[in-house]
Each structure stands twice: as C-alpha cells, then as structure tokens.
Amino acid sequence: MTRILLAAVGVLLVCGTVPARLGWSSSVVISGSMSPLVEAGDVVVTAPVGGSPLREGRVIRFHDPRRPGRYVLHRIVRVAGDGRLVTKGDANRIADATPVPAETVTGVWRLRVPYLGLPVLWWIEGGYRRLVVTAPALLVPLLWWLWSRSRRSDRRPS
C-alpha cells in the first residue's frame, strides 16, 4: 500500500512539474461547451502555440473577448481571410459570434484530466455541500493510512 501511494504521489509530482517546465498550463473547465471531448469539472492542459499552425480542427485556449481575464477552450472551425479564427464549442450549434485574433490564443489543447477540477467547479457554482461531503471522504482514508503507518513503525524494533 505504501509503495502504491508513493508511486501515485511521484507520478502526480512528475505530471505537475514537467508540463510546467515546458511552459504548459492547466485550467479547470467550467462549462460543457466542448462536450463530449471535455466536460465541466475536467482539467485541461495546454501547450504554448510556438510554431504550431493554427488550423481548422485544432482545439485552442484563448482570451474571452466578452469577459476580460477569462479563457475559452474551443475548436477552430475556420480561418478567416484576415487570419482571425472562427471557433465553436463541440456541443454548440453555431460558431462563436466574435472571430478570435491569433495573438489572443494562449495555448493548444494537449491533455484532459477528468474530474480533477470538480472541487473548483463546485466552489464556483456554490456547491459547498458537495465540498463538505467530498473533503472528509478523501481525508479520512488518508488520515487512517497515516495513522496505521505510524503505528506499524512504532512496533518495529530499532
């Protein structure tokens, strides 16, 4: 059990630090506009645009033109003649009203981590009851494991 937990912590550390070193960033999805590819409560990881061509079909993260300080994760459905990007959420019926200037793109979608962002989503939506139930459900097994581990080490001869 200890090895499994240590391995899980190690994997989480590597998965958290390596992408950051590469300039990748993560964010919690708060709407279902990209369903079924990405669901509300998932964490998405995006890589810098760099030399990646911004072409039709690519999923990008960009500054929300209607809400400063927020981001949108949508798919490019067309590149307009002036170079602006026409985007659309996979679950939406029509394309976004405002084409996106390429310079507002902050990243290209690389990875989805399902459910990891649910506590953040619940907090944003005011779902405090879910947090109150989930936190102890996660903490109690962890504390029990730590307590049983310390008891085992106390019993071992020095």
UniProtKB/TrEMBL annotation:
It is found in: Membrane. Its EC number is 3.4.21.89. Keywords: Membrane, Transmembrane, Transmembrane helix. One of its GO terms (molecular function) is serine-type endopeptidase activity. GO terms for cellular component: membrane. The chain crosses the membrane at residues 128-147. InterPro entries: LexA/Signal_pep-like_sf, Peptidase_S26, Peptidase_S26B. The keyword Flavoprotein does not apply. Signal peptide: none annotated. GO terms for biological process: signal peptide processing. The keyword Mitochondrion does not apply. NCBIfam families: sigpep_I_arch. This is Signal peptidase I. The lineage of its organism: Bacteria, Bacillati, Actinomycetota, Actinomycetes, Micromonosporales.
